[in-house]
Write a structure and sequence with these properties.
mainly alpha; 8 helices; DNA binding; nucleus
Length: 224
Amino acid sequence: MDPAQLAALFVKPHHAAEVIIPWLDSVEPSRWTSVCSNNVLMGKILRAYFLHDYEWFTFLHKYYFFQNMAAARQRFCSPLLVNSLFALACYCYHKLPQRLEFWNPHTLGYKFLAEARRLWEVEEASSSNKLTTLQAGLFINVVIHYYYVLINLHKPVAAIPPPKPPKLSKREIASANPIQDEFVDAYIRLETLLRIYHLRHGFDRLDIFLLAYLVFLAFTNHTT
C-alpha cells in the first residue's frame, strides 16, 4: 500500500469504515425473529453494530454465532439472543428513523426489545440454563443502560439535585461545603461540555468514546 494511502487511513473518521463480514451473505436473520422480514436491512444493522459496539461489548463469538444461524442450530444462536442483539444494534444504525426514541412502540429497536422480553419470560418460566440466554441478558442490560443515558441527557441542569451532605458538626460543615460546591460546579461543567458537543455534532452518529461520561451523568441523575 502506498504510504500516502496508509496515512490516510488514520485520519478518516471511525464511522467512515465498513465492516466486512462474509458470513452475513449466507444467513437470514429474519428466520430468527417475527419483528422484521427484511434481511437486507437487518444485515446493514448488524454491520453497524459490529462496527460501533462489538469491540466494546463482545458478548458472543461471531464465527459460532453466524455458523449456528446459517445452520439453524441453537447452541450458539437463539431467537432470544437474536432479538436482544438487534434491540441494541438498532441504536448503531443511524439511518433508522427515530432510532433514539426508545419510548416509541413503532421503532424497530422497541419492537426487538419487546420481543426479546417476551422470549425472556418464556425461557425464565422453563428454568433452562443456556449460554444464549446469558448472552441475551447482557445485551438487554446494555440497552437499558442506553435508556438511562438518553433519558438523563435531555434532563435540565437545574433539575439535578445537589448531593446530600453528610451529618457533620458545625466545624466540619465549614470545610465540607466548598467540596460540595466544587462537585456540583464540575458536574454542571461536564454536562455543559457534553451538550455543546452534541449540539455541534448531532446525534446521528454513535460516539462510543463518550459513553462512560454519559453513563456517569445518567446514573448520577437516576434517583429511583
